[in-house]
């Protein structure tokens, strides 16, 4: 197999998940994260400098993810498909505004707020829209309700919360981390390498994730709406009700806001998920203490207020969630574990396909992710013959058609939305 020497190789072999942990961990600060518009946030070596210390590879969830012996090894049906599930709950934030602006019911935010106000934590590290460029994201340490409320809602575009882990490390007390499954894995790996960080991580909340669309997806969504990215004042992907609408507000207030249903916008954006996201078996943040997703097992009625599924995965998660219930931050009821599969069948089918997809990569001798403790082979066996053949042959086809047997060179790919958008022929208004 071709050799991976550093994160530049991880990126060029399309294995990067964009969590940003490599930028945090590099002792020389030689890694910077850039937005490769057609792919995602990806690491580049500053002036090609690298001292080959291996820290960036040690922290990278893109090349290796493993359940600690004992945790992912349990053979019960639920953990074979979803990792450890101590308890499953459904409900919402008791704070009506957080519930309204939140993605599904604002539970990730409400639990974060409880941690700050009642559990002695200093802040929540998570991502939100970048005020300087609202179609892109940035990492923030939110320290109060206003900060948290302003960063509610899923952003179906690249985000690297681990690039801000030094904010947790330097905080005066423990902090909460919120991120996607790959972000939480990057955090966990970084915690094992940096004791200063480990001491400051008070709780990890994961959100479910089917894959992150590239910035190209957002640009093309704006193109559909006939809006130039430079004219965007605010871009929301969902929230404001459940599942909420994608909503784009323009700088010039004379132009009306543009709205698109969740089904239409996610249906469009999901086509822009990069190759590596299709190799990810962890859709439900198995390495988090608590993870949150949508209870899609039932039809959402018109004007229904939000609702979220909450998976408790660790003893710490249990303690925090029960505290948040007692203190009235969240309103939850226990539900049957079977609702996880009923709600997230697409995530389960993705997990089932990973073994076949990786097999195709091995056949080409190209670098592939090392994934342990996810029971990938037995999950793959759950599919029928046609499914199994498709998982392998579909990937072979993709590798050949898109030349994935060669590393890609991002080179001087334009990272600047302003330059990029000038190539478009958009009529405003
Ligand atoms: C790319 C993507 C794909 C998803 N796929 C699924 C899916 O297949 N099934 C499912 O049930 N749910 C999925 N979700 C999660 C879902 O949309 C909700 O985030 C989840 O239900 C939690 O809702 P909430 O109301 O509790 O979160 P909120 O209280 O609104 O908080 C959301 C938190 O997520 C953080 N966040 C938002 N976008 C990102 C991002 N791109 N990267 C890292 N952190 C982010 C915010 O900073 C905020 O702290 C996805 C989310 C994303 C971003």
Give a brief rundown of this model.
The protein contains 18 helices and 15 strands.
Describe how the helices and strands are arranged.
Elements: H1 7-12, H2 21-25, E1 31-36, E2 40-45, H3 55-58, E3 64-66, H4 77-82, E4 87-93, H5 96-101, H6 107-118, E5 124-130, E6 133-142, H7 145-149, H8 165-169, E7 175-179, H9 181-193, H10 195-200, E8 201-207, H11 215-224, E9 232-236, E10 245-250, E11 258-261, H12 262-269, E12 290-293, E13 308-312, H13 315-326, E14 330-334, H14 338-343, H15 345-364, E15 370-372, H16 376-381, H17 385-401, H18 417-422
Parallel strand pairs: 3-15, 5-7, 7-8, 8-12
Antiparallel strand pairs: 1-2, 4-13, 4-14, 5-6, 9-10, 10-11, 12-13
Helix pairs in contact: 6-13, 15-17
The structure holds flavin-adenine dinucleotide (FAD).
């Amino acid at each position: 197999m071709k050799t991976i020497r550093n994160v530049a190789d991880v990126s060029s072999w399309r294995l990067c998940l964009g969590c940003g942990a490599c930028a945090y961990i590099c002792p020389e600060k030689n890694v910077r994260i850039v937005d490769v518009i057609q792919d995602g946030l990806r690491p580049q070596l500053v002036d090609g400098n690298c001292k080959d210390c291996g820290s960036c590879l040690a922290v990278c969830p893109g090349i290796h993810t493993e359940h600690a012996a004992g945790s992912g090894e349990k053979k019960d049906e639920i953990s074979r498909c979803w990792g450890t599930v101590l308890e499953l709950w459904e409900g919402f934030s008791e704070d009506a505004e957080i519930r309204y602006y939140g993605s599904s019911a604002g539970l990730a935010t409400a639990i974060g707020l409880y941690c700050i106000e009642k559990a002695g934590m200093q802040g929540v590290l998570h991502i939100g829209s970048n005020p300087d460029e609202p179609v892109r994201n940035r990492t923030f340490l939110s320290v109060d309700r206003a900060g948290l409320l302003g960063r509610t809602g899923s952003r179906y575009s690249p985000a690297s919360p681990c690039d801000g882990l030094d904010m947790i490390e330097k905080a005066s007390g423990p902090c909460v981390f919120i991120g996607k499954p790959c972000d939480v894995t990057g955090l966990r790996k970084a915690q094992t390498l940096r004791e200063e960080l480990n001491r400051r991580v008070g709780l990890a909340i994961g959100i479910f994730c089917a894959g992150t669309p590239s910035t190209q997806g957002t640009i093309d969504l704006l193109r559909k709406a006939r809006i130039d990215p430079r004219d965007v004042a605010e871009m929301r992907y969902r929230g404001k009700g459940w599942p909420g609408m994608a909503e784009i507000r323009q700088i010039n207030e004379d132009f009306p806001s543009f709205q698109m249903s969740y089904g239409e916008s996610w249906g469009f954006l999901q086509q822009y998920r990069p190759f590596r996201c299709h190799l990810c078996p962890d859709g439900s943040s198995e390495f988090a203490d608590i993870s949150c997703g949508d209870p899609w097992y039932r039809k959402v009625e018109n004007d229904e207020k939000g609702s979220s599924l909450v998976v408790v995965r660790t003893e710490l998660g249990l303690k925090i969630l029960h505290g948040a219930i007692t203190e009235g931050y969240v309103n939850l009821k226990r539900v049957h574990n079977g609702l996880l599969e009923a709600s997230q069948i697409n995530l389960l089918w993705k997990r089932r396909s990973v073994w076949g997809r990786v097999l195709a990569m091995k056949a080409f001798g190209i670098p592939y992710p090392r994934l342990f403790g996810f029971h990938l082979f037995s999950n793959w066996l759950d599919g029928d013959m046609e499914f199994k053949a498709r998982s392998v042959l579909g990937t072979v086809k993709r590798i050949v058609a898109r030349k994935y047997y060669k590393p890609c060179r991002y080179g001087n790919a334009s990272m600047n939305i302003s330059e990029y958008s000038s190539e478009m022929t958009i009529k405003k208004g």
